[in-house]
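Q: Could you fold this chain for me?
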Amino acid sequence: MRKLTVSTLASLDGVIQDPGGFGETDQGGWANQYFTDQAQQEALGRLLASDYFLMGRTTYELMYRSWGNIKGGGPYLDRTNEIPKLVASRTLTGSLPWNATVIQGDVAGEIAQLKQQTGGDIEVYGSSTLVQTLMNHNLIDEYRVAVHPLVLGGGTRLFTDGGVRATLQLSDARKLESGVVELVYLPASKE
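A: Sure. Below is the predicted structure, expressed as structure tokens.
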């Protein structure tokens, strides 16, 4: 059975929007200075343990535009480019570039079926709307939130006002050399 992990970079005030500087906001790239060798190795390890990279349409389009044609950018970027991507979208159709497949219709049903199969994990980055859908169907096995020591004052947050409620259990917490604190939570019902 596959594990589905939501991994996200967040500011202290909960903003997840444009941490890599993909051109989505004027303050984009706020997490780049914290993406140390240690952070890259940990992110690479999670991608290597995963068979799929699941994301929403906006995250897919932003990442593809920035990273989709870069070859030889190092192990993390190489794995990001080669891993099969599943894109949840109501508007995209047909085949997608960057080793991606669009999931239309019942995203929760498709992911639930995929989770029942044997194989590597499913990694989700950002994608707050998709995360709400996954939460609503109890499909998330682990939340990894890397809290960065800065306040952005505005932007898209992982957990939206009026979103799905959840009770989580802290599984791990540690401070990275950069000052980022990585929090790992499990749904209380999946302890």
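A (continued): The mean pLDDT is 94.
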